[in-house]
Amino acid sequence: MSLEYDAFISSGKKWFCHVDDDNYLNTGSLLKLLSQYSHTQDVYIGRPSLERPIEATERPGTDEMQVRFWFATGGAGFCLSRGLSLKMKPWASDGTFMTTAEHIRLPDDCTVGYIVEALLGVSLIRSGLFHSHLENLGLVSDIHNQVTLSYGTVDNSRNTVNVKGLFTIEEDPTRFRSVHCLLDKRGRKGWTDGGENVNICRVPPLPTPENVSRQLGDLCLPLYNSTRRQAF
User: Fold this and answer.
1) Assigned domain for 95 exists
2) Looking at 78, 96, 126, which one is the last position of a domain?
3) pLDDT digits (tens, 9 = 90+) for 73-83
4) Per-residue pLDDT tens for 55-68?
5) Domain final residue pick, 75, 93, 126
6) What predicted TM-score, i.e. pTM, was given to this entire model?
7) What's the domain count of the chain?
8) DSSP the chain
9) What pLDDT shows up at residue 106?
10) Taking burial as the number of CB atoms within 10 A of a residue's CB, which of 31, 126, 181, 232 is the most buried?
11) What is the CATH number of the domain that holds 7?
């Protein structure tokens, strides 16, 4: 988080949004949400994972003081305006973020909440459009308007959003591929793993003797025909 923050400050961009690598980000909904706020104002928006403020122990010198504050869980994602991010610099820039985290002995997303709420006195804006694996994702509705989605397992059971798509659970265990194709009805190319983008929403053609022959060679065609005749 410290490196993310420093990179954002150097970039001159308007919004700092953190999402984990197991989130699905709906950029259209994110832009719609952020358009309701000014990046020059103090904006800290996300979703808390707890039903009460977290408690931490500050250690200024040799004294200890209890402090309570809300924080947006990093597992669901959150956003900070540039105006607020700049005010965080004394406790977050050039490596001081790690020092602040060690000061309260809490993870990075909690540290952001500590800086914003406890030190700067700015309240978290709660949004139900951010989602983490800590909630029952099967209850999430209106997929089109959600900003982030997640997935996980609970007691050996999958915790995913319920979305009907072209892909089975085995083909799409996170349901992100189905979500992407639901949102992207224009058939644009999908995500990439570093190579060329591909249209992940295209349903592969059913096997035929012709394309099987092209892929596996003419020697496999008699076996394919034999297997097809026996299937019923």
Assistant:
1) yes
2) 126
3) 999 999 999 99
4) 998 876 657 789 99
5) 126
6) 0.80
7) 2
8) -HHHHHHHHHHT-SEEEE--TT-EE-HHHHHHHHTTS-TTS--EEE--SSSS-EEEEE-STT--EEEEE----TTT-EEEEHHHHHHTHHHHTTTHHHHHHHHHT--HHHHHHIIIIIIT-PPPEE-TT---TTS-GGG---GGG-SEE--EEETTEEE------SS-TTT-TTSHHHHHHHH-TT------SSS----TTSPPPPP-HHHHHHHH-GGGHHHHHHHHHH--
9) 95
10) 181
11) 3.90.550.50
Let me know if residue 174 belongs to a domain.
no
The verdict on residue 218 lying in a domain is: yes
Q: Which residue has the higher pLDDT, 188 or 132?
A: 132
- pLDDT tens-place string over residues 119-129: 999 999 999 99
Q: What whole-number distance in Å separates Cα of residue 13 and Cα of residue 36?
A: 17
- Please confirm, yes or no, whether 109 is among the known catalytic residues: yes
Which one of the listed residues 109, 142, 184, 193 is annotated catalytic? 109
